[in-house]
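Example record

The entry below shows one chain as it appears in the dataset: sequence first, then structure tokens.
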Amino acid sequence: PRSRCATSSDMFATLVLLAARAAEWTVEELEQIFQEEGTDKQARDPGHAYVHAYAMMLGPWRSEVRNILEVGIGSVDRASEANMRFWWFAMRNYHHVKPEEKSYQPGASLRSWRRYFPNARVIGLDIDPKAVARAKVTKGVEAFVANTSAPESLERLQLPQMDVIVDDGDHRWHAQQETLLALWPLLKPRGYYFMEDANWTAISHGDAPTSPAARQLLKNAGAFVIHSDAFGRAGLADAKKRDFAAAHAEAANIVCLMKPSR
């Protein structure tokens, strides 16, 4: 959206603006959608409570978002390394579904975005064809088989420029970096890029290789780390530090990047 702050130096100003527009969004509204659709972004245990980050950062721009892309539709296939079978069982164990109801179904986040953004085109990518087929059942949701670690698989899709990109796919750091580099050109200036489940502890201890190109991009964009606690706390990572990864060592955060306007 045109009214957003455009550069990494404006991140604090963005927080002030978000606070000023607080009356335009509520965590409760998005939380209800997340719960009804069954995504693990919800705040109920054992969800990640990412609803706080998304409500705060995207709530004020709901009507302005035209295109949103999410990587990782949520496969329940045992053969898929990054699958949602844990969440499928967790929803039942925590009584988030009635006995006669189905538990988690792929595409929960895409269905949520379809409801939350009234004017947006909602697109999902996944390597599991079965998850893609399940997501396509929802009217207003598009889904494609693609591997974001292999940029050539994206070229044939001819995707539009995005206002919002969410990486909820393979949560290994090397894959998150590859996805960031592959999808960053698709993000509009002043658009938001979210990276879920960023394990800074593993990164800062050298347990995952770091791409120099990805590290530089994170620094240039002024990456913003949002804590996934029940209070929706937010804090700025010091993107100018030499060891950016050591700035936040929590094991499950959302990293938010705003693409500069130039």
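Notes for this example: The CA atoms of residues 11 and 252 lie 21 Å apart. The chain is about 30% helix and 20% strand.
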